[in-house]
Design brief:
By secondary structure, the protein is of the alpha+beta class. The chain has 20 helices and 14 strands. The chain is about 45% helix and about 10% strand. A hairpin with a 2-residue loop joins β9 and β10. Keywords: Heme, Iron, Membrane, Metal-binding, Monooxygenase, Oxidoreductase, Transmembrane, Transmembrane helix.
């Protein structure tokens, strides 16, 4: 009897949940219909935590449904659909804005430049959904996790560190660390080295640059320990730079920083006190790294306060010193800003400032190895800028703008277009506050309580990225989805003249100027958004551009990159092959690389290869063997 009663109770609960879910779905469908926006119905909210944690288990099962049950809804169950499918779903729906309706949520996806511009300029009508950013508050509130008056305060704190006058230090640090990277990568006297995991190395490269240019700590690369050639950044304690943990620490600075940022996803479980008690080793290590890096930041913050009090000067951009100076925290009775505000911004700028740039360099190298004609054009452009001068003679003011106006910037722009760091830039409408917008002369209503995504599929929208005549599809790939940096070398005017953001307070302004050079192809406003757009656009945009273009210059004045083909042929076998044989083995590597970039990338913070690598080779210029285009 008790057994029957228990099963009856379970059945009643399941029936109630089913009816409630159905009613919520009907309500959301009715709201979607009334908006006038095209919509697709899904059984689940694809960005809910339970689905994100388990979708890879469910999708193979759902794919076994009979063909009559399948449709676009099934393709959209993959949270990475915007990257994998590009503009395809929008074309199937017949609209560049559509709603995704599930029982628990209405989401909107936007791939229309006019609508993107309306959303990014009407920041009070379409705010960031702050609930998505609370997990970035590991050390305190920050520029990314706030809105309104709080955001203005954090923006004023950080903006002075990102003005044009500070980019020379970014340039200098990038020269130093790219040289160090090449000393680790360079071919030996007998053969070229295969780099099995270049993405891991570019992560370290980006971490060390922002540590030096942003925090005044020049970290020593492990392979250069003890060589006495690493300059100490201004004022930094030597205990922060080497492999030995300083007194009071169990991890060195480099290890704590790398462990924390490379395994950031585990910090979402809880604070260090929770992670340190976990039975899982990686959890405990990340918990220790969180505590260690927090302690390092406390020490660096105190060092900067002491330097500021004593009147010591610093080179270029010193983020902590700028934060202290702009916070007024030296006189705590005269400010409401807390120490946690400084540490919170230091952390989030370190996080955002390394992963996106590291990925962009990594993917650029892969794409260039898949398109020799573009790599050769890049090398020629760089050689014209550098004119054979040694790195020690390069000057920021003489070099950067020339790189920004030519093929190096075209490669950077195209990489960020094809593999955008953030698939979906989140915006929202407040519950109960629907918002009107215009698309192609028609008025629509964005429902209140909608989670909006400015979708990276806009970068594959052929309306904004036209193909050359006769090249609409090459190698089975539509032109808008291909890596073709030459598209940026066109001077075709597709938009009005550039107008910088009109901040109501100049203290909010970070880097000024355009995302792309006026000497290159100028996309329609709102159609190119790797750094977002409008008032909340990326404050570190110019920092990243200086890093990438400087790294290209150092790399490609000396070397070329090729896909590694070790899996299919040895060096001796490749040497013995004719051109046709080499192209056949290269194409195997290129097909695999393209498949991995489409199918095995996933997002935690940014879009990255997960669980796979694409090996490449660094070869001296003139020693290339695989000069083909994909």
């Amino acid at each position: 009897m008790a057994y029957l009663f228990a099963w009856s109770a379970i059945a009643c609960v399941l029936l109630y949940q089913g009816l409630t879910t159905y009613q919520r779905l009907r309500r959301n469908i009715a709201i979607a219909k009334s908006s006038g926006i095209a919509y697709v119905v899904l059984p689940v909210h694809v960005f809910s935590v339970p689905w994100l944690a388990t979708y890879y288990l469910w999708i193979p099962i759902v794919n076994k449904l009979p063909a009559s049950f399948k449709g676009l809804w099934l393709e959209l169950l993959d949270p990475e659909w915007a990257h994998r499918l590009g503009h395809g779903p929008f074309e199937k729906i017949g609209s560049d804005v559509f709603l995704m309706v599930s029982p628990s949520k209405i989401m909107a996806f936007v791939a229309d430049a006019e609508v993107v511009t309306q959303i990014t300029t009407r920041r009070n009508d379409f705010p960031k959904p702050l609930e998505m950013y609370t997990r970035l508050d590991l050390y305190g509130k920050n520029l990314v996790s706030t809105e309104g008056a709080d955001w203005r305060m954090h923006r004023k704190l950080t903006a002075p560190s990102f003005g044009e006058r500070n980019n020379e230090l970014v340039f200098t640090e990038t020269l130093h660390h790219t040289d160090a990277l090449l000393r680790m990568w360079k071919p030996d006297a007998n053969h070229n080295r295969t780099l099995t995991d270049p993405g891991n190395d570019t992560m370290s490269w980006a971490l060390y640059i922002i540590s030096g240019a942003g925090f005044d700590i020049r970290v020593t690369w492990p392979h250069e320990e003890g060589k006495n050639q690493v300059d100490q950044a201004d004022g930094a304690d030597s205990g922060f730079t080497g492999s030995q943990p300083p007194p009071g620490h169990t991890m060195n600075y480099r290890e704590a920083l790398s462990e924390l940022l490379h395994n950031i996803m585990w910090t979402f479980i809880g604070p260090p006190s929770v992670l340190l008690k976990s039975p899982i080793k990686v959890h405990r290590k990340v918990g220790r790294a969180m505590s260690e890096w927090g302690n390092y930041m406390d020490e660096i913050l105190q060092l900067k306060k002491d330097q500021l009090s004593s009147g010591q000067d610093a080179n270029g951009m010193d983020l902590f010193r700028a934060l202290i100076r702009n916070s007024g925290i030296m006189d705590e009775e005269q400010t409401t800003i807390q120490k946690s505000d400084l540490l919170g911004n230091a952390f989030v700028l370190m996080l955002a400032g390394h992963e996106t740039t590291a990925n962009a360099l990594h993917y650029s190298l892969i794409f260039l190895a898949m398109r020799w004609s573009s790599q050769k054009k890049l090398q020629d452009d760089i050689d014209e800028v550098i004119q054979g001068r040694p790195v020690s003679e390069w000057k920021y003011e003489e070099t950067f703008q020339k790189l920004f106006n030519g093929m190096p910037a075209a490669v950077m722009n195209e990489t960020l277009r094809i593999l955008t760091p953030i698939n979906n830039i989140p915006k929202s409408t407040a519950p109960g506050r629907p918002q009107q917008f215009t698309m192609r002369g028609e008025q629509y209503t964005m429902p209140g309580g909608t989670q909006i995504s400015l979708c990276c599929a806009i970068h594959k929208n052929p309306r904004y990225w036209p193909a050359p005549p006769g090249e609409e599809v090459v190698n089975g790939i539509p032109d808008a989805q291909r890596f073709r940096p030459e598209r940026w070398l066109s001077k075709s005017a597709t938009a009005e003249s550039f107008a910088d953001i009109a901040y109501d307070d100049e203290e909010l302004r970070g880097p000024s100027g355009e995302d792309t050079s006026s000497n290159l192809f100028r996309p329609v406003k709102g159609s190119y958004i790797p750094f977002s757009d409008g008032f909340r656009s990326c404050i570190g945009r110019r920092f990243a551009q200086v890093e990438l273009l400087t790294a290209f210059a150092v790399l490609f004045t000396q070397y070329s990159v090729e896909l590694a083909v070790d899996e299919w042929a040895s060096d001796e076998e490749v040497e013995a092959m004719d051109e046709q044989g080499r192209e056949a083995v290269w194409r195997k590597a290129a097909d695999r690389a393209w498949w991995l970039l489409k199918k095995k990338t996933a997002s935690i913070i940014t879009l990255q290869l997960r669980g796979h690598t694409i090996p490449i080779r660094l070869v001296k210029k003139g020693g290339e063997r695989l000069k083909f285009d994909y």
